[in-house]
Amino acid sequence: MGRSLSECRWLGHYGTMTKVSIADKLSQFSDYFNPRIVGELNGQHVKLVKFQGEFVWHHHEHEDELFLVVEGRFRMDFRDRQEWIEEGEFLIVPRGVEHRPVAEEEVAVLLFEPASTLNTGNVQDDALTRAHLQRL
Ligand code: NI
């Protein structure tokens, strides 16, 4: 038998069966490089993040990361090349590959990645590492 919505909430299924407005979530924060969790499924998190400027070079030992541009554009730097990701486009960075997101102007990005993913990966950065993310 299926589960009711209230039962799913009790079981901790975050955001289950309730639609999510990306614009509404984005309106609830304005700081940079501080991802918010807005959904969760199959051990993966759906996150939203805004940023401008350069992030830190890093890689993820065990996680592939998906970056989908919602508003604006940004450049993903790899050690041997750069890739601009425009609004409506996404990029997947495989585990183990060093990368650095850079935005000349503010960009809003949806991230889809395993719940274990730390934003700075193998790097501990006092200013940028976010071990605990807020849920919106
Ligand atoms: Ni990363």
How are the elements arranged and paired?
Elements: H1 5-11, H2 22-26, E1 36-41, E2 44-54, E3 65-71, E4 74-77, E5 82-85, E6 90-93, E7 100-114
Antiparallel strand pairs: 1-2, 2-7, 3-6, 3-7, 4-5, 4-7
Bound molecules: nickel (II) ion (NI).
Residues 58, 60, 65, 99, 121 line the site of nickel (II) ion.
Summarize the structure in words:
The chain has a domain at 20-114: Sandwich (Jelly Rolls). It contains 2 helices and 7 strands. It has helices spanning 5-11, 22-26; strands at residues 36-41, 44-54, 65-71, 74-77, 82-85, 90-93, 100-114. It starts with a helix and ends in a 22-residue tail after the last strand. The mean pLDDT is 92. Nickel (II) ion (NI) is lined by residues 58, 60, 65, 99, 121.
Could you give a quick summary of the protein structure above?
By secondary structure, the protein is mainly beta.
- Helix-strand makeup class: mainly beta
Helix segment tally:
2
Architecture of one domain, according to CATH?
Answer: Sandwich
State the CATH topology of one domain.
Answer: Jelly Rolls
* Poorly predicted segments: none
Sum up the overall morphology in one term. Answer: globular
Q: How confident overall, as mean pLDDT?
A: 92
Which ligands occur here?
Answer: nickel (II) ion
Oligomeric description of these chains? single chain
Beta-strand portion reads: 35-45%
Rg: 15 Å
| Secondary-structure element string | HHEEEEEEE
